[in-house]
Amino acid sequence: MTSKHLKFIQHSGKVVPFDRANVDTDQIIPKQFLKSIKRTGFGENLFDAWRFLDEGYIGKTDRQENPKFVLNYPQYHDASILLARRNFGCGSSREHAVWALLQYGFRCVIAPSFADIFYNNSLNNGLLPVTLSETQVDTLFRLTYENKTLTIEIDLETQQITGEKLDTIGFTIDPNRRLRLLEGLDEIALTLKHASEIQEFEKQHRQRMHWLFSSR
Amino acid sequence: MNQTLFDKIWQLHFVGQRDDGLELMYIDRHLIHEVTSPQAFEGLRLANRMPWRKQSILATVDHSIPTRNRHNGVEGIDDSIAREQVITLDKNCREHEIEYFDMHDERQGIVHVVGPEQGATLPGMTIVCGDSHTSTHGAFGALAHGIGTSEVEHVLATQCLVQSRSKNMRVEFRGTLPRGVSAKDMILALIRQIGTAGATGHVIEYCGESVANLSVEGRMTICNMSIEAGARAGLMGIDNTLMNYLEGRPFSPVGKQWNDAVDVWLSLNSDVGATYDKEIVVEINDLAPQVSWGTNPEMVVSIDETVPDPASMSYEKAETAQRALQYMGLEPGVAMKDLELDKIFIGSCTNARIEDIRSVAAIVEGRRVASNLQAAYVVPGSGLVKQQAEAEGLDEIVKAAGFEWRDPGCSMCLAMNDDRLYPEERCASTSNRNFEGRQGHLGRTHLVSPATAAASAIQGRLADVREYL
Ligand code: SF4
Fold it and tell me: What is the DSSP letter of A77?
C-alpha cells in the first residue's frame, strides 16, 4: 500500500507527549533504513535508536525495547498524535521520516514549529502538521501528564482541536493545502492540469535563458 | 522596486498559480541520487508518467556506496540492500536516458560537489535535489532547494515545484577573517548565533566583503550549511570570481551563449536598497576556529573555550544541553582542547573539495597522525577532486602522515556504508551534522573545519590550528 495522497479530514486519537525540541529526521528514521527502495516498511524502525536498546538494521528481529522511551510506555502504545517541541523534523530531507511516522500509526504531529522540508513532506503524505503557540503546546503537555492519557479530536474542516478536558483550540493551515488534504487530491495531477501553461512558460524561458536548453 | 537576488530569480521562474492557489516555480536543473529517487521513479511508473524534461536531470551515486575496493563495481557492494539501490538508479537512468555518472565514471562523486564542478550549476538557475544540502548550489547565485521524494516525483513529472514564496534574510559577515579561520568557522559561528531554526521560512543571502573575498569553494561551504540554520536556501551574489570558476567547465555555455548568459547573470544581483525581512550581522574580526560540543549544529564554541554548563542556560536549553552532554560523554568546564579523539573524518559536501584537501595537506605535511587514533580518513568529494589531488601529490602527503585515502562518496558523513564510528567513539569531522548516531550508532561528532581536523589528527585531541601555522 502506498501512503501517498492520503486524505485528512478529522482524526480522534491519543496524544503521546514527546518532550523534546529539535527532533531531527536522523532520529525519526536512522540512515541504515534508507537503503530500501520502497515506500513502506519504515514504521517498525521509527525512532529506532531511542526506541530500542540494541542497534538496528533492516530485517533485524528480536529487538530489545527501551522501557524508558515514552513511545514504549504501555499507556501510549496506541497513540496516534505526536506532541513535540519546537523545530520538529529538522535536518535531512528524507521523506522516509514521514512515511515512518505514518506507518507506525501517527496521523498528526503537534509542535510550536516545524522545519520547512519536513512540513512539506508531511502535507504531501497526509500526515497533518499542526502548529500551535508555545503556550498552547505547554497546555497540551500539562494535560497529558496530569491525566496520564489525553484523547483529542483534530478537525481539519473546522480547524479546531477539541477534547473532553480542554478548551477548544483553533489552528490554521494554508487554505490551499488544507483543501487538498480534505479532498485527498493528487498533487501531480493538479499541476498537470496546467501543462499548457508550463509549456508556454518554458517557451519564453527558452528565449530568455537559452543556454539552459542547449544540448546538456 | 528594489529587488533582492532571490526576488529576481523567483520572478524569472514563476509559472503561475494553480487552480487551488498554490504557486508553481519552474525548475532548470534536477540533481538525483540513489537514496531519494527510487520511490519517485516508481511513482511515475505506477501513474504512467514520463519525465518532463530529462535534459535537466543529472544523476550520480554517492550516499550508500563503499569508498574502497570499488574495482568490482556494483557487484562489489557487499551490502545487498545498498546494491539494489544502486542497481535501481542504474536502471532508472538507462530507461529514461538520463545523464548519469555511475560508480565507474571518473566524474562520480557527492552530488553537491559534482554539479558545480561540471558547470551543471549555473547562476540564476532554479535547482532541486532530493537532499537537504542542495543549498550548497546557492554559492553560484542559483536558487537551490532540497526537497522530499514526493517533490522529486513532482518535478520529474511537471518540471515545476509547488512553492510558497520564501522570505528574504540578509546575513553580513563583517570584518576580515583571521589566519587559520575559514568559511566553515564562519557558518558555524552564524548557526551558533541564530540557532538551528533561526532562518526557518527564509532564503539567506550572504553579503559583505569577507564573502566576496572567499573562493567559490569556501562560498559553497557556507551555503551548504544554510539548512543547518533552518533556511530554505542560501544565496550569494554573482561576480567575477564566479565567472572565472565557471568558464570552460563541461556544462557551462560557450561563445555567444556564454556572453548572453553573463549579461543576464550580472543583472540578477540584489539592488542597492533592496529590503530584507530579517538582517543579521556576524562579526568575524576576532573569530576563533569553531567546534561543536553537542548534538545539533548550534551547540558550538570556540576551540579555546570549555564545554558549556547547562546550569548557566535557560530552562528549555538546559534540558537539551544536559541530554547532549550525556550523549557526548562530556562534563561542563572541560577544555575543548583536552578532548581526546578516536577518529578523524575529512570529507562530505561541506568540505571535500580540492581546496579543503590542500589545507589539510599543508598542515599534515611532514607530520604524523597521533597514535591514539583508530582511523583518519580523507574522502575526496568526487573522482575529479581525487585526480586533481593526486596530480598535486596531496594523496602522498596525507598517506605519509597516516591518513587513509578513499574513493569519493558521502562516507562517514552519514555512515550508510562501512565508514562509521563505533559506540562512544569521538570524531573530529568536517561534515555538517552532529546529530545523535549520525556517524554511527552512539558515535560522538565534533564539527570542525578541514584545517582544525588536520591539526586535531596530529594532536590526537581537538586542536587549535592557529598553533600549527
Ligand atoms: S556528504 Fe553528507 S550531507 Fe552531503 S549529501 Fe552526502 S550525506 Fe548528505
Answer: T
Task: State the number of CA atoms in the 13 A half-sphere of B293 facing the CB.
Answer: 29
Q: What is the pTM of this model?
A: 0.96
* CA nearest to B226 within chain A: A91
- Tell me the CA distances in angstroms from B385 to B108, B401, B451, one per residue in order: 10, 20, 18
Q: Where are any strands of DSSP class E within B366-433?
A: 375-378, 404-405, 426-429
Which residues of chain A are within 8 Å of residue B196 when distances are taken between CB atoms? 22, 87, 90
List alpha helices for B47-100, DSSP H.
80-95
Distance CA B190, CA B198 (A): 9
Q: Which residue has the cell 496520564?
A: A148
Residue B277 per-residue DSSP state: S
Residues B408/B108, Cβ–Cβ less than 8 Å:
yes
Query: What is the average pLDDT across A130-156?
Result: 96
Give the residue among B15, B25, B234 at the shortest CA–CA distance from B141: B234
Largest CA distance in chain B: 65
Cβ separation of B261 and A192 shorter than 8 Å?
no
Q: Which helix (H) or strand (E) holds B347?
A: none
d(CA B39, CA B292) in angstroms, rounded, equals 35
DSSP, res B340: B
Helix, strand, coil shares, percent, chain A, to 5: 40, 20, 45
3-class state of residue A178 by DSSP: helix
In angstroms, the separation between the Cα of residue A169 and the nearest Cα of chain B is 24
Distance from CA of B222 to the nearest CA of A (A): 16
pLDDT along chain B (469 residues), means of 10: 95 93 95 96 96 97 93 89 95 97 96 98 98 98 97 98 95 97 98 97 97 98 98 98 97 96 97 97 98 98 98 90 97 98 98 98 98 98 98 98 97 92 98 97 98 98 97
The answer to whether residues B346 and B352 touch, using CB atoms and an 8 Å cutoff, is yes
A85-96 pLDDT tens trace? 999 999 999 999
The ipTM estimated for the assembled molecules is 0.94
A43-59 pLDDT, tens digit per residue, is: 999 999 999 999 999 99
**Placement of cell 607530520 in the chain:** B367
Q: What is the pLDDT of residue A49?
A: 96
Residues 6 or more apart in contact with residue B100 via CB below 8 angstroms = B58, B59, B60, B89, B90, B93, B94
